Input
Amino acid sequence: MAYVPSRLIRQPEASFVTGLSKSMMYLLIARGDFPKPRKISKRAVAWSLEEIEAWATSRKVAA
Output
């Protein structure tokens, strides 16, 4: 069976999936509480959708 890499998503889609603003995502990254993006070119980064979904499911839902 061939390895299928996780789909990479850019910041707007990552914000949509998580409900977080861009600034909150980067604040959480700086704290080590959010998956780090991967550099995909000199000026662009993207996140693994699989890592974002795992992060989202690991969060507790507010009551």
In short: The chain has one domain: 8-58. Residues 8-58 form one domain. The beta strands are 8-9, 38-39, 45-48.
